Each structure stands twice: as C-alpha cells, then as structure tokens.
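Ligand-bound model needed. zinc ion.
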Amino acid sequence: MCAALCFFAIVLTCQGQETVQAPQKQYKEPLKDRWFFSYGYKRNRKDVEKIKSLIDIAAEHGLNGMVLSSFGLDSITRWNEKDIALLKEVAAYCEKRQIELIPIGFSVGCGGGALGHDRNFAAALPVSISLKAEAGKLIPVSGENLVKNGDLEQSSVNGFKEYEFHDRPGKVSFVDRMSSSGNYSIRFENFGNFQHGLARIMQKVAVKPGRVYRFSFMLKTKNLQPISGLKAIVYANGRLLTSIYIYPKVKPTQEWTNVSLEYINFDEKEVSLYAGIWKGETGKFWIDDIKFSEEGSLSDIVRREGTPLKLRSRDRDVVFVEGKDFDSIKCLKELRHISLPLGSSIREGENLELSCYKIPYVGRSWGKQISLCMSNPGLYDYWEAQAKMLYQVIKYKRFLLSMDEIRNGGGCISCRKRSISMARILGDCITRQYTIFKTIDPKIEVMIWSDMLDPAHNAHNKYHGVVGDFTGSWKYVPNDVTIVCWSHRISNRSLSFFSGEGFHTFGAAYYDGDDLTNPKEWLVSLSKTPNADGIMYTSWKKKYRLLVEFGDLVSENDIKEKGESGL
Ligand SMILES: [Zn+2]
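Prediction:
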C-alpha cells in the first residue's frame, strides 16, 4: 500500500488504537507463516546484498518467508538478463536459508508494470477541453480564476474575505506583508500548539461536470516541520477527490514556490479547495495567489477501447477527422498542443471543443499515483504474460496481489457499459488475477491486501475519485484467497470480519515504529482469529532495526511468556 493515510482519516477518524482486550485463551503455537516485507531494495548488486543480509537475519530468528517488493516483478518480460540473474540469485539464497520467496505485484491502484507497458491502460474520466487554432496548432484555452480573493489582498478583522475558513485567525493564521504578489499573503504559525496541528485555508467553488481544472498557489516556508504534512486537496460530498503531497518539492525553508494539482471533475457541482498543513508541528509558512481555473491540458489523454475522442468546431457544425484535420493524439505525459497537417479544414482562429478521456491522479512525493482500468481486456493478457515468465524464473508457491488503494476507476465506457457495480468490477478483476495463477499451477496460493475488500476500510461508496461503489466487493472474490489485513487501527474488526466470511487471514504488522508494540497487538488479535495464518514485519522506510527482535517474538511458543504487559 502507499503508506499514506488520507487526511480525513487522520483528522476526522483519529481515534487512536482500538482497545485490545486480553485474549481469553493464550496463543500456544507460533503462527504458521512468519514473514518480512522487503521494501525499497531494487534490482542492483548493492540492494541484492542487503536483501541477502535481511534473509540471514530472518532465517536465524525464526522467520520463514519474505515478500519481495520494489523489484518490479510485474514487468519481468521487459527485464534484461542481468536483472533475471539477480532475481534468481535472491531466490536461490532464499531456498538455501529456507525462506519462502513470495512475489508481490499486479497493482491496480498504483499502475505498476502495466502502466509502464502502456499508459493507455490507465483509468480515465470523460472531459471536454476548449481549444483555439493559432498558427497551425490547436492550443488549450484557460478559464478565469474561480477563487475569489485568490491574491489575498482583501481582509478584515475576521480574516480573509470570501474564504469558508482559515484555521484560528489571529492565533494560527495571520495577514502578512510578505507576499508573492500584491501587498499581502496569509501566514501560518503556532499550529503545533493545537490538536491535530491544523493550519489551512479553504474556499468552495462551483464546478462543471467533465471539465479539467488546475488548482495552484504560491508557497513559502521557514523551518517548517513536518514538511510531509503540507497538502493541497480537492474535496466534496464526503470524499477526497484528489490531492497532492507537496514534499519533496518544497523544503522546510523555501522561497516562494508554485504548487499545482490537476483535478478532473466527473459530476460534482461544487468542490472545497484546501491548502495548508495537517499534523503540523513547528515553523511557519505563507500562501499567496490561490488559483483554480479550467485548464485544457492535453497531457495524459487515454486512447483505447472505451475512451473515444471527438474534435468539433464551436463556431460551425463540423466534426474534424483525426489524422486528416489534426495530427493523431497519443497518450503522453506532456502534450502542449496538437499540430495541424497541411490540408486541414480547421480555420485559423477557430474555436473548438475536444471530447476525450483523461487520466485522473493523486500527487505523491514520488510522482503521480495512477489507477488502471479493470475493464480493459489487454490488462489481463499483460498480467498473464508476467505471471508465466515469473514462474519460469522462480517457482513461487504463493503470490501477493498488490490490490490496495484503488483511487480511480469506473469512468470509461468499457467500465460503464458493463452495468455492474464497481464492487463487481473489482471482484471480477481479482477473480481473473486469481485464475491466471491457478492456470499456471492450481497449487499456487493467492493472497491480497485487505483494504479494498474491507467494509471497515475502503470497500464503500464515495471512495476518492472512483465512479461507483465498492460496497460488497468481498462477496465477489474466490473464498480461498488469503486476506492480508494491514490497518492496525481496525485490526480486530478486519480480522474477525474476514474470518467470519470464511477467509484465511494474515497480519501486516509493524509500520516503522520504534518498538514492537504494534506487532505484539497484532499477535493478540491474530490469536483470537480462526484461520489466521501469519504475521509480517512490514516496513515502508527500510527500517529493519527491529527485525531480530520481531523474529524472536513471533517464533516464540507462547507470547504470554514474552510478556505483553503493555497490551
Ligand atoms: Zn474503465
């Protein structure tokens, strides 16, 4: 999973850990599977040596499996021989140390190898973009700024005019003469003195369906911590539609910098625009020149079945022909204009409208988080080829489907013409993934992250930018997949839910704490769960300092003897 909680989960449901009751009956035998998650080590000599050293620790401290992440296993058909050799070396070392190697891959929520293979595999939303013909090109036309008082020049004793709120005027937010343009900006400080460390400014704006918008502002920081708390967010009707995590572009101390996020509106009428910090602790920052305007970006236009494209004149009743009146449009990360070939019937100065399908995304520190379309048949052919080749290289017995945090989908014609819920589309996708492995070898066991199948987590309506409802998704997957629960906050609820539905379960524990409180609590939860198979040391920060202690803890016969007095 992407190791980042949605901000509303933090702000609105920050209720701490569930109370863990001491189990009626103590757990007597170690869990069958005791694994660690190899994260952040890639296909190179130095990282392979590091993985081998972790395998040594695991083998010497009672662990028996390693999920190999970060290796790009679902793009193996594009690897060179050196990469294949490195994977074989890791697999051979696992075998020698009697550590099972479990591959992970086939992410829909983060695109994975399939997106690298073909960007057109992305989920897409219908949009119309205004264009103008100028000097042999079609150029996108930008709309006016929809944010009122975006330059923050108008304020009163109550704060900045036109905004719904800014946090704690006079205590956390202030009018400041340090401006990016004009005379004033908003300054935030002292937020660490208050619960949740909130320092934000918000305005609601009216939006049209099927339009692309750009949300941007200028930002300046001074000794700000934690910088990872800075975000820009588009929110409406109980859902976080999209967001951008501003770091690492902005440093703790930084001069005025432009922050920008594209938002594709499917059918909302009004959205709330947030900019600021969540869980802020120390330092200051300033925001100025807030803008939200229609922007006809031509980047990331998806071209596949289910994503048709049409260019028409807004000045006369004409539809233009791709390849004849305008150059063919490809799905490119960056496309600034469309060229007009000789003989085009588009007139100089003509106003046009392009109807097409564009990729929505969530902005991450590492780039754009892009979901795949689960209704594209080509995706399954791609995955099948990867699974087969991977099996030729390493004879894996289990595979962990990286099917978490699917934040977009359901908007293209291929999805909508199926006339089934997103829960069924997701269930069908997982079933097809499962079938790929069972066809290779019926003995391969399939595992999956829990969140998209968990009603207490992400299996619900209004999930981020998804068009459709994930409620009930758990009913549409094979009942012998093992569910790897990963949210510590709801661990008891999740484990008992999936167990009650007849699934085997697993606990993805740890998450980079400074001690083993988290895995100890997972062990108690797992001990109360029928058919709980295992526990995993799951780091998202390459933090393996506690792996020795973890191995000893989970391979002990009776956790009570190890003392869980803190539970
Ligand atoms: Zn689709």
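DSSP finds ten helices and 28 strands in the chain.
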